[in-house]
Specification:
The chain is 40% helix and 17% strand. The chain is an alpha+beta fold and 711 residues long. The protein has three domains: 224 residues, no CATH class; 97 residues, Pdz3 Domain (Roll), CATH 2.30.42; 285 residues, 2-enoyl-CoA Hydratase, Chain A, domain 1. The strands form seven sheets. Strands 6, 7, 8, 9, 10 and 11 form a six-stranded antiparallel sheet that branches. It starts with a helix and ends with a strand. The relative contact order is 0.09.
Length: 711
């Protein structure tokens, strides 16, 4: 039997499998009809060649030299199925049982055999999705009853797979009611709701039918790489091009990184210097539900859309307007939408540069000046450097200049704000650390080519003869989104006892990746290309020998944050490489700051008890946690209205309690609140802690922060 005949036979077999276990569906006129035929998808020869090459890279070049074996195959199956149906809304328990036959075969098929089972599993999923959406369309024949006391469980990630189609029908009956109710709460008439949901469900089917062979292959191989570790990935040729565009920062758009999460497109990151950053309203974890062109254009519902199709809608000519309808982060599905209007433009690199400001802290009849330098990323203009430009842009140069300007202004202390800093160039991480450390090692690096007996590579201060740029009281402010190079810097400052780390446990990304363009590894040319592989090849270690991987950097003084460390960060990601240690390298640290930190923490705790802004922040965090912990929604319209009204009333009360305590005028509505008026509680408290340090230094109550102890 030829490969083509085998695939024809497999296509017939999978269609029969689907039809045997799926009932006929009712269409809108009440007649039954079979499920629409799936587009026939199959693995091409180049896909199998790519898969074999990726398997070789993983075994030979990954940091852990991972064996592509049955254990990895088992992980891949679980991750692939989770990626297909994370919320368990489509597949049946019988499907999962059927797929078990491949649990220990996926390693073999990637290395040397046809990828048919991958496409077979996807086709079953595709069939199930089409069945669910056809069922949803049938439910729109009549307006739902919004007076029911039923609950809709929108978070089913921990629930068992549905036993049969009847169970899924019940789940989807409630989902359709919830989808309709979400629009009804915005006072949309049933005719409009029917139109929107019909377009949404039919659009989902249409986009499902547009999935091609490359899409299925990329999805599986990306999950295959994720089974090794969360930072290894595979991108198809098309998405590899998108990645290069994003990295060049040359596209025109809104300046935000997006990803799909269930049926929503979600904001992953706001790019510094982009339109969304300037506007300030769009936030991480906001979910986009609709997109409109221009100030008056009609909204296009994008729930359930492919990510690249949503990106195409958001992109457009410079200076043109795009409007986004969003569900704000930490809001329940079905919460009232917000409209954000943005003017498209190119990301401005100069706006990503480090910036400074001075915060005045009144204390005992004196006004202390605390300098703040915000470091958004570890940037360096390598193109200018390689062309011989001695004035090339770098974060270290910018920070050194800003320190000089702040010292001319007579600052009493310094805060380096690295919240949200996802990293950047390693060279800049070591150079920036060198501005505050006399000389010595900054970080250790172990690569996949090293053996366990090989000592890690030691990366030292690249300019050891230069004077320390600043030796006064200093704190580094971090949060859960501070990652990679930020953690190298914060770890070095902490290990050398050069300053105090304030904020939240950092992300925990202590690995190094290499990008392989796969086109260069194939002698044959293919008009489609072969895509790219990103592979983890190394790990960072602090000078103490402790890895930043998985654990990140723990702050000396913790501040409350609305970023949930349980769901954000390396420790929240499946298959993350573990924390471990290597030998401590020789370095000279300042006198321990333990007693100083204890006193600073005590002062912070005492001050926070009565600080209206601090108490306001704690209340907001608790409210967000209550929402995140909720897994169900009422399907009763009046109950939902009352719940939403109470949430708004509580938020207004929190704000007015804060304002009254600060002797400010209360507001009548949250619409009267200017986002710029909200306090930056973490930064303000960091400035107060550094003021404590400056006060102690003046009283000679703090140890000298110079090299004294050898390790």
């Amino acid at each position: 039997m030829t490969i083509f005949e085998q695939r024809q036979y497999r296509g017939l077999a999978i269609l029969l499998l689907a039809l045997m276990s799926l009932p006929a569906l009712s269409n809108s006129d009440g007649n039954t009809s079979p499920i629409d035929d799936n587009q026939f998808l199959f693995a091409e020869q180049r896909h199998e060649n790519i898969a074999e090459l990726v398997a070789q890279f993983i075994q030979k070049s990954h940091y852990n030299h991972v064996a592509v074996d049955d254990a990895l195959s088992s992980k891949v199956l679980d991750i692939y199925l989770e990626d297909l149906d994370r919320n368990r809304m489509y597949l049946l328990a019988s499907d999962i049982e059927y797929f078990e036959r491949y649990r220990y075969q996926l390693d073999d098929i990637v290395k040397s055999k046809p990828l048919d089972p991958v496409y077979e599993m996807f086709e079953v999923y595709q069939t199930r999705v089409r069945e669910r959406l056809n069922f949803a369309l049938a439910q729109l024949e009549a307006e739902p009853d919004y007076s029911t006391n039923e609950e809709y469980e929108f978070d089913r990630m921990e629930q068992p797979w549905a036993a049969d189609t009847r169970e899924l029908d019940e789940i989807w009956r409630k989902r359709v009611i919830n989808d309709a109710l979400s629009l009804a709460l915005e006072d949309e008439p049933w005719e409009k709701i029917h139109e929107v949901l019909t377009k949404r469900y039919k659009g989902f089917i249409k986009r499902l039918d547009q999935v091609n062979n490359d899409d299925v292959f990329e999805r599986f191989m990306n999950m295959f790489a994720h089974a090794v570790d969360p930072h290894s990935s595979y991108l198809s040729p098309r998405n590899a091009d998108e990645y290069r565009i994003a990295m060049s920062l040359s596209y025109v758009g809104i300046g935000a990184t997006l990803q799909t999460e269930d049926d929503f497109v979600q904001i992953v990151n706001i790019i510094r210097g982009g339109p969304a950053d300037f506007d300030g309203k769009l936030k991480r974890d906001d979910r986009i539900t609709a997109v409109a062109q221009g100030p008056e254009g009609e909204f296009t519902d994008v729930i359930g859309w492919r990510l690249d199709d949503v990106v195409d809608l958001i992109r457009g000519p410079t200076e043109s307007i795009v409007r986004l309808q969003i569900i704000p982060a930490n809001s329940l599905p079905g919460s009232p939408k917000e409209i954000i209007e943005l003017t498209r433009g190119a990301v401005k690199l100069e706006e990503q540069a480090a910036k400074s400001q001075v915060i005045k802290v009144p204390r005992e009849g004196r006004e202390w000046s605390i300098g703040v330098i915000e470091v958004p990323g570890f940037y360096r203009d390598y193109r200018a450097l390689n062309s011989g430009d001695t004035e090339f842009t770098s974060v270290t140069r910018d920070v050194k200049r800003l320190i000089g300007e702040l010292e001319e202004d007579g600052i009493d202390g310094l805060v380096i704000d690295m919240r949200g800093n996802g990293g950047g160039h390693l060279t800049e991480a070591t150079a920036l650390s060198g501005l505050f450390i006399d000389n010595g090692p900054i970080v250790q690096l172990r690569n996949s080519v090293d053996t366990e007996r090989s000592p890690p590579q030691r990366l030292d201060d690249p300019d050891p003869v230069a004077r320390v740029a600043y030796n006064g009281p200093m704190a580094v402010l971090v949060d859960r989104f501070s990652a990679s190079a930020s953690e190298i810097f914060a770890g070095a400052i902490q290990d050398y006892a050069r300053g105090v780390i304030i904020g939240q446990q950092t992300f925990g990304k202590g690995t190094v990746q290499n990008l392989y363009s796969l086109d260069q590894y194939f002698r044959t040319e293919d008009e489609h290309g072969f895509g790219q592989l990103t592979l983890t090849i190394g790990k960072y270690y602090r000078v103490t020998g402790a890895s930043t991987q998985h654990r990140g950097v723990y702050p000396d003084i913790e501040l409350p944050s609305n970023i949930d460390a349980a769901i954000v960060g390396e420790s929240a990601r499946e298959n993350a490489l573990p924390w471990d240690t290597v030998d401590t390298t020789r370095f000279a640290a300042g006198a321990p700051l333990n007693s100083t930190i204890e006193l600073l923490a005590a002062n912070h705790a005492e001050r926070s008890k009565d600080d209206p802004n601090f108490l306001y922040q704690m209340d907001r965090i608790e409210a967000g946690k209550r929402i995140r912990d909720q897994k169900t929604l009422s399907l009763n319209k009046e109950t939902r209205r009352a719940t939403r009204a109470q949430e708004l009333a509580d938020a207004l009360q929190r704000e007015n309690d804060r304002r009254i305590a600060l002797q400010l005028e209360p507001i009548e509505s949250l619409d009267d609140l200017d986002v710029d008026d909200l306090p930056d509680v973490q930064l303000d408290e960091a400035a107060k802690i550094v003021t404590d340090m400056a006060t102690m230094r003046e009283l000679n109550a703090t140890p000298a922060q110079t090299a004294q102890i050898s390790h």
